[in-house]
């Protein structure tokens, strides 16, 4: 079993806790309470490793130790305690809230200053940018405030993984963690 430390960062109410709750417990709460300080959860996934021996693929267990931080401004000073030594970071914004992408970009820049993130660094922290609440634009495209193109371009320019998801409808959540697990295992 290989363990990786993962941190979630992003503005308050973008859905960090909802993403983690969906991933760990497969539940969703319409009235989720805002996180105080941070919450710790863990979850294990399985990967198939067929790099060494393609004829007999091997199953590998990856355990994520997850720090779900509080997005409210008053907890901002605590964040470095949680992202310290992280192997991976999920930075979340809400695709129906324009301010939340600028906040996410600030987190990306802070992590790039404080953690190893260069693509060729074997100990780098792998960052995934995640736009949540995709369900809200399904019926009404005018709810969308952040285009996929803009967020994807930023991700490509900065070497980030990128997903648009819905914690509510369970769209794309597993994929975030599966992709991070594979990237971490293969780095
Ligand atoms: P803080 O803990 O304050 O940093 O917020 P957070 O980022 O953890 O947000 P949280 O998961 O508490 O979600 C905030 C609100 O958004 C809650 O009312 C959730 O039910 C709602 N929410 C979260 N994810 C989704 C989603 O995918 N779709 C919709 N429609 N609502 C969502
Ligand atoms: Mg929370």
Automatic annotation (TrEMBL):
What's in the keyword line of the UniProt record? Nucleotide-binding
Instruction: Note whether Nucleotide-binding occurs among the keywords.
Output: yes
Q: Which GO terms describe its molecular function?
A: GTP binding; GTPase activity
Q: Give the source's domain of life in one word.
A: Eukaryota
Report the record's Gene Ontology biological process terms.
endocytosis; endosomal vesicle fusion; Golgi to endosome transport; late endosome to vacuole transport via multivesicular body sorting pathway; multivesicular body assembly; protein localization to endosome; protein targeting to vacuole
Q: What is this protein called?
A: Related to GTP-binding protein YPT52
**Gene Ontology CC: one annotated term:** late endosome
Q: Which organism is it from?
A: Hanseniaspora guilliermondii
